[in-house]
């Protein structure tokens, strides 16, 4: 049996997050879907950045992408992980690689040299009500290919984690399938996150097929589950998703989350918080859960730890905490 070096093998879009606090009017003027993610081409993304500069907004950079934020939460919990994503040989790419490694996550995909495809960026606009609106230019991340997925690294991991955002472009979609296939071949459980409602609007049938054929674990939030199942009845949604996978985690904002373990559903309460920025909350939750599952916790304990990390993340501006959290683990789980 292959030695398990990593708790989690993660794959997703490697995106530099550019974080800014803005007012409601700023988002309205952009004419994008408030509270969701909008894909931008290069000129559109440049226009968003010009508007931020013109308004003298303070910008903060972080290596991001949904799965990358999850991997950092795994590391901050005390776990180990390796991440596959594609960056370009530019300033943002160099920052991304260094920032991931500083966070404790191995990042081994080589930097690409295509000058016409920059490292992807996501401008995260957070309004006073803590809602986040994302403007994303995928850049070089859309060239992530199946050959970038290392089967040996998957075999050395306890869980493979794939983000739904990969499904939006042809090459990353193929990489997503390759990861599932390799995980299946090496008998490594596969976890998948729906990522965003706009993806479900376009790919619900694909996601259902993926879940039934490849997935051992599903992550989604209550809104996404309702879109996926086509009903407002959350309990009916949980029951339907439970038929697709053995283990599902459905977050429900400040109300905590639901865990479906082989059809048995448990509600795990959230933590009292005052949210100022919801960006990265779902990613942090998944990181806490994946750490728990790969380090001897029950699914319910793992969900409680995930709830705790998510509650801490929404109290700050940005998708991840600056500090290690492992010293809190015993008091939260016991």
Q: How would you describe what is shown here?
A:
With 334 residues, the protein is an alpha/beta fold. It starts with 5 loop residues before the first strand and ends with a helix. Strands 6-5-1-9-10-11-12-13-14 form a nine-stranded mixed beta sheet, sandwiched between helices. The chain is globular and about 50 Å long. Strand 13 and strand 14 (264-268) form a beta hairpin. The protein is built from twelve helices and 14 strands. The model has no long low-confidence stretch (mean pLDDT 92). The chain has one domain: UDP-N-acetylmuramoyl-L-alanine:D-glutamate ligase (3-Layer(aba) Sandwich). The chain has helices at 24-30, 42-54, 66-76, 91-102, 151-155, 170-185, 197-214, 222-229, 234-242, 281-293, 299-313, 329-333, and strands at residues 6-11, 15-21, 37-39, 60-64, 81-84, 106-107, 120-126, 132-137, 157-163, 190-193, 217-221, 247-251, 257-261, 264-268.
């Amino acid at each position: 049996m292959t030695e398990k070096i990593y708790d989690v093998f993660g794959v997703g879009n490697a995106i530099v997050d550019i974080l800014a606090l803005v007012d409601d009017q700023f988002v309205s003027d952009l004419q994008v879907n408030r509270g969701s993610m909008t894909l931008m081409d290069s000129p559109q993304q440049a226009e968003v950045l010009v508007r931020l500069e013109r308004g003298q907004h303070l910008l903060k950079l972080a290596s991001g992408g949904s799965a990358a934020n999850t991997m950092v939460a795994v590391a901050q919990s005390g776990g180990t992980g390796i991440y596959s994503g594609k960056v370009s040989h530019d300033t943002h790419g160099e920052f991304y690689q260094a920032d991931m490694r500083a966070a404790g996550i191995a990042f081994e995909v080589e930097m690409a040299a295509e000058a016409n495809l920059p490292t992807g960026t996501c401008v995260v606009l957070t309004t006073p009500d803590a809602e986040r609106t994302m403007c994303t230019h995928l850049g070089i991340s859309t060239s992530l290919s199946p050959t970038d997925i290392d089967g040996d690294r998957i075999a050395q991991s306890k869980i493979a984690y794939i983000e739904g955002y990969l499904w939006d472009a042809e090459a990353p979609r193929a990489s997503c399938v390759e990861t599932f296939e390799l995980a299946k071949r090496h008998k490594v459980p596969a976890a998948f996150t729906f990522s965003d409602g706009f993806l479900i609007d376009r790919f619900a049938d694909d996601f259902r097929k993926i879940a039934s054929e490849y997935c051992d674990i599903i992550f989604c939030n209550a809104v996404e589950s309702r879109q996926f199942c086509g009903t407002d009845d959350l309990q009916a949604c949980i029951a339907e998703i439970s038929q697709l996978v053995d283990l599902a985690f459905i977050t429900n904002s400040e109300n905590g989350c639901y865990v479906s373990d082989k059809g048995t559903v448990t509600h795990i309460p959230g933590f009292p918080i005052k949210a100022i920025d919801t960006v990265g909350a779902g990613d942090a939750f998944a990181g806490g859960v994946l750490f728990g599952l790969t380090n001897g916790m029950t699914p319910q304990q793992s969900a409680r730890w995930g709830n705790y990390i998510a509650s801490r993340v929404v109290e700050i501006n940005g998708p991840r905490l600056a500090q290690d959290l492992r010293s809190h683990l015993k008091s939260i789980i016991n």
